[in-house]
Amino acid sequence: MTWNVYLSGEIHSDWRKEIIKGVEIENLPVELSAPVTDHPASDNVGVDILGKEESDFWKDHKGGKINAIRTRTLIEKSDIVVVKFGDKYRQWNAAFDAGYATALGKKLIVMHPEEHTHALKEVDAAALAVAKTTEQVIEILKYVTEKK
Predict the structure, then answer these.
(1) Which of 12, 17, 61, 115 lies 20 to 30 A from 39 at CA?
(2) Where are the alpha helices (DSSP H) in 55-133?
(3) How far apart are CA 124 and CA 82, in angstroms?
(4) Tens digit of pLDDT per residue, the chain (148 long)?
(5) Cβ proximity of 39 and 67 under 8 Å
(6) How far apart are CA 121 and CA 142, in angstroms?
(7) Sequence ranges of the domains in the chain
(8) Torsion angle, CA of 10/15/121/104, rounded to 10 degrees?
(9) What's the half-sphere exposure (Cβ side, CA atoms, 13 Å) at 18?
(10) Best CA proximity match to 138, nearest among 101, 115, 129, 96
(11) Any idea what the Cα angle at residue 98 is, between residues 116 and 14, rounded to 5°?
């Protein structure tokens, strides 16, 4: 079986590359997917395709909906959703993805630093694992896919 794993969350660090590398090194039967992580492309997709908007609200509205086509489809097709919360910005999109995945009954792994534990207690309560590092996520994927 090939496991579909969706990597959601912050886009300001190399955590996805670390997981991709770990999955490759371990030769795990895992197919990884993610949202568009080019921040300007993601923010501007709506106006780039559908035309300019006078208001940032409508610009974000268009972009958010187009991004949701990809995000929702990949979460729906996933076996496991990994959501990383980082230190930069408030990651409402990551929290939404965690909630959406949970509502769909997807297996959820949450990753964040210790100092976010209190703020994310409800998200953590929905997760089947709460990791602090990419290495822990890779070990979880190794265990569940290879029974090791």
Answers:
(1) 115
(2) 56-77, 92-103, 121-126
(3) 12
(4) 999 999 999 988 999 999 999 999 999 999 999 999 998 999 999 999 999 999 999 999 999 999 999 999 999 999 999 999 988 766 888 999 999 999 999 999 999 999 999 999 999 999 999 999 999 999 999 999 987 5
(5) no
(6) 26
(7) 3-38+77-146
(8) 80
(9) 12
(10) 129
(11) 65
Residue carrying structure tokens 């996805």: 16
> Residue 85: what residue type?
F
Residue keyed to tokens 């209190």:
118
Top CATH class of 3-38+77-146 equals alpha beta
Q: Which two tokens mark 18?
A: 């670390």
Residue in this structure with the two tokens 């940032």, named with its chain if needed: 56
Residue with token string 């579909």: 4
Q: Which of 23, 16, 68 is nearest to 37 (CA)?
A: 16
